[in-house]
């Protein structure tokens, strides 16, 4: 099968899943009465007097299928309701908050992948040696750490004990005012990137200082997973016939490990890294919450906590769609990386 | 049965997994003997609600009366972490139990009968797996309202699709086995073939995986409780106790680590509990990974 028709088929397969996702989200709103559902569209308190009019306008007392149709139409035209927490429409809150989340992901994902691959390879090459045992213990420890607790402990030490050294938030107050002033152009709303583009050293430094702890928290928790995956993938690859051949040819062990075994072992790691990025991009809820790092994860938590249902559901819908699309891209890239994947025939 | 014996033998050989098993045994003992280790005060009705001295907010350091100190709201930390062990097991067993049952029913229907039924069930799992787990769980608890019941339902909704898929995969393989073919040839009904021949062979790997997932369930439940979307206030729950500590990570000027016990102790219990299951699980994943040659 040709690549183009494969992509087409995958995109078509996406439609029932996305339809199901919207149906599910809409089904959740059916927990509420029409009156309560009308409040999801209320933007200020005075409108509460007009609930019957809102019910009328959005057809909230009509049969399920009709309502679903109306709702889907609204969603497709960009109306996800009003976010109480962000004081703006949900559809505007998401693009407003996503740069912060992207900033976390951009820093965390490369660290996780590089460190994970490095130690995973070493661990497999020295299977059952002290190095393998210690990386194993570190990995399992990282994997078992409650991320919220790790975050609190890090804050206790680096914000409390070393007073204010690595603070929570995204920027300190003076810098926050500075980036919103006329002299600073916000190209991307990703603070570090904007600081570089504006050639502003102090802002860059301040932004980095706020990034250290959240990025560390995310990395420690997720690194373990990549490390273990890389290790088992390496072990599988080291057991293959071509490794025996390579060794028999008299190649140096480092060449065998780094060139022959690792290249093949990387494939599952690359796939999982894609999912990892998708997961992080759709909001590192816990990390953002602990460090008051105001991205979409933090917003989603605020919304869930303050029962701002329109935001919660809008966010769930957004992250599911993003997740599905990134996974699709990963799968398509996969066919380029692994020549053994013959499209439509599976791995041979 | 053979699987369990094999597991036990591998367990003894590996010091790391042995440590995991020891941790789990300790927690089981704590859970069973909770009423003896941390007796409930006589005038206290529900033992799962932590007793409190007063409504005063500031945590109090460890003393003779409260050996781990008290957390925000004067809840006794020692009592909370001991009874919290029971809460952890309860949530884990209920969630895992129901998840496995749903997984077995839907997975075996999909795997055994195939065709349209399989297609429908698998597409439904696709929909659930499209959501990042925490976000799905948050949305559900927000809609259903805070409480342990919502938390458990949310976790079941998050977890069942993976089990349905796992069991379906096993059944698909087993369906082609000769003895299943033979039984069908002898005129056995579908129900009999599934219940007598297919399921018993598929169920052990599932149960092993489920028991090793208990750590992950508890970690997720703790995360939701920490976010304020789980246990009701005052319930003996490790996640919630960590949330109480959130306001106390920085002490007054001059004593930045003054409230360390409120932050540190509940988290250590979560960590050790999850660590126990993961140490065990990691060893077994190696043992059972069919891709790794047993050398």
Write out key terms for the chains shown:
heterodimer, A: mainly alpha, two-stranded antiparallel sheet, 15 helices, globular, disordered C terminus, B: 295 residues, mainly alpha, two-stranded antiparallel ribbon, 70% helix, 1% strand, elongated
Short précis:
The complex is a heterodimer of chains A (348) and B (295). Chain A is mainly α and 348 residues long. Chain A has helices spanning 3-29, 34-39, 51-58, 64-76, 90-125, 130-144, 147-161, 173-179, 191-197, 201-238, 241-248, 253-281, 285-290, 296-305, 309-337, and strands at 82-83, 88-89, 341-342, 346-347.
Write down the overall geometry of chain B: elongated
Number of helices of chain A: 15
Order of neighbouring strands in the sheet with most strands of chain B: 1-2
How large is the share of residues in beta strands of chain B? under 5%
Shape of chain A: globular
Mean pLDDT of chain B: 85
User: H/E order of the elements of chain B?
Assistant: HHHEEHHHHHHHHH
**Rounded to an integer, what's the Rg of chain B over CA atoms?**
23 Å
The topology string of helices and strands of chain A comes to HHHHEEHHHHHHHHHHHEE
Q: Please state the structural category of chain B.
A: mainly alpha
Task: Note the gap between the termini of chain B.
Answer: 23 Å
Helix content of chain A: over 70%
The biggest sheet of chain B amounts to:
2 strands, antiparallel
Secondary structure: number of strands of chain B: 2
Q: What is the number of strand segments of chain A?
A: 4
pLDDT < 50 stretches of chain A: 344-348
Number of helices of chain B: 12
Report strand % of chain A: under 5%
Radius of gyration of chain A (CA) equals 24 Å
Helix content of chain B: over 70%
Specify the structural class of chain A.
mainly alpha
